[in-house]
Design goal:
The longest helix has 29 residues, at 104-132. The protein is an alpha/beta fold and 242 residues long. Helix content is 45%, strand content 16%.
């Protein structure tokens, strides 16, 4: 199946996995909205790269943990590109802290950005997908949801919550042409991972960090497949085996 003519939105799309995903979806034929919270220049650069490849993209600045901003972002995407058919919930923040230094504010901020945003953006795009009887929702979790990871309990809990959201959406939407899946990467070579001294290739059975393109390839696969739903695809070099 082709993604030609499909409208995609990638949250946290200005760098790392989000950037690679936006580029991969564009190469597959989708028209892409690249969301960021603050790095608008980088999001615009991703869009410029997509346009150089002959694709179509727009940058969208919004804090996806705030409902009003999400609603306006979705309205703008639908106005400029068309009805959203593919959602990649990729926005997230790490907060590497000793256990005893994690505050209530830290917990709330990590859960809001990493988990609440998935709920908010999904709710915002669902009416259009249900009307079209076609949609792909792809949520980026982490091996931290399965092992605890190397960042902290607030991060692990936020990512584990994504698995529950995925299952809760996938079951009732299965007969409406909408699939909902999770990708759980581990130690992907990004700015976030390079800044984490606890992250080492020694944790990975294949002996190296993953690449952003290896994750983006799975996003495209899920976007083009209508039979996989409610699943977690582990892109983790063998760290967690299921």
């Amino acid at each position: 199946m082709t993604l030609n003519g499909k409208i995609a939105i990638v949250t946290g799309g200005s760098r790392g996995i989000g950037k690679a995903t936006a580029l991969a979806l564009a190469k597959a034929g989708a028209r892409v909205a690249v969301n960021c919270k603050t790095r608008m220049a980088e999001a615009e650069a991703v869009c410029a790269e997509i346009k150089r490849l002959g694709g179509h993209a727009v940058a969208m600045q919004a804090d996806v943990s705030i409902g009003a901003q999400v609603a306006e972002m979705v309205r703008q995407v639908e106005s400029q590109l068309g009805p959203i058919a593919i959602l990649v919930n990729n926005a997230g923040i790490p907060r590497l802290q000793p256990l005893g230094q994690i505050s209530e504010q830290d917990w709330d901020e990590v859960l809001a950005v990493n988990l609440k945003s998935v709920f908010l953006v999904t709710q915002a795009v669902l009416p259009g997908m249900r009307a079209a009887k076609w949609g792909r929702i792809i949520n980026l979790s982490s091996v931290a949801a399965q092992t605890g990871g190397v960042i902290g309990p607030h991060y692990a809990a936020s990512k584990a919550g994504i698995h529950g959201l995925t299952h809760s959406y996938a079951a009732p939407l299965a007969k409406e042409g909408i699939t909902v899946n999770t990708i759980a990467p581990a130690l992907i070579d990004t700015e976030m991972m390079r800044d984490n001294p606890r992250a080492t290739p020694a944790l990975i059975p294949v002996g190296r960090f993953g690449t952003v393109d290896e994750v983006a390839d799975v996003v495209v696969m899920l976007a083009t497949n209508g039979y996989i739903t409610g699943q977690t695809i582990n892109v983790n070099g063998g760290w967690y085996m299921s």
